[in-house]
Specification:
The chain has 294 residues and is an alpha/beta fold. Helix content is 38%, strand content 20%. The protein has helices spanning 28-39, 55-64, 89-94, 112-123, 140-151, 164-178, 221-225, 241-248, 257-272, 278-292; strands spanning 14-20, 43-49, 69-72, 86-87, 99-103, 106-110, 132-136, 156-161, 183-187, 199-203, 227-232, 252-254. Bound molecules: 2'-monophosphoadenosine-5'-diphosphate.
Amino acid sequence: MKDLIPVTIDGHTRLCGLIGNPVEHTSSPAIHNTLASIYGHNLVYVPFKVENGYIENAVDGAYALNVLGLNVTVPYKSDVISKVVAIDDLAKKIGAVNTLVRVDGGYKGYNTDILGLERALKVAGAQIEDEVVVILGAGGAARSAAFLCAHLNAKAIYVLNRSLDKAKNLADEVNSDAGREIVTPLNISDWNVIPYDSFVAIQATSVGLSPNDSEVVLEDEGFYKRVQFGFDLIYRPATTTFMKLVEKYGGKSANGLAMLLYQGIIAYELWNEITVSEDIAKQVYKVLEETVKP
Ligand code: ATR
């Protein structure tokens, strides 16, 4: 456990922040200000609520004010792309940027939500390459998961959604990008047509989110018997009904808090050109856990 060194704001203090609307419920300041205190970096991270129509001014103003980096949240993850001077390949593919890194002449855009999910899966011991992945949901979070799993060369990906048309659209997009039919869209109730007995399941719907803790998007015992690893992108509650069912039938499970942690850690690494060790990641995780407690 590293001692924390409080930041003294002076003439050298660097500023990072979050732009979005709303921003009041964010946990990102806990991640970045804890990292700054652990490393003794003279850096502070603050949320900025940006009103509709002001995103371009916000990015220009941040650059003018020598802001080192920004996270971008709802509803600006797509809109901000028109303001970046460079963009990471994966962020470009999925059309969403959540991190701006200061470079000459402006900001480079990254998607550390995806990179954070990748690191969280790896740390949890869930292998994706050559594995079958079942994604529950076809919204924004599911989209990130589907592009990531295709990028990591999953053997096959099934996107299961209540509205089949959304699953089909997502499948078309990922398949055309991958140049092969890697994603199959299905109605959630048709899960049993999946021709594999064992898979990784990623729960990317909003069902089961606190306070609706007892809800789960799919209850069939047969489905859970096939889940070797179940990753719920929800982290409030810490153990969702989906996770309980995965564990009940012998699979391993994890919630989405590590994804939140690593999207922040990767942004901090990009801003400060460092690599954060797993020991330090664990220390920040504990702070984050306290922050998100209901
Ligand atoms: P996010 O950005 O968190 O992914 P989203 O884009 O609103 O949020 O997507 C929410 C996902 O949860 C969708 O897949 C949605 O299914 P539909 O596309 O059919 O709306 C899914 N979802 C939300 N409530 C649901 C419910 N009661 N039953 C099944 N799926 C639900």
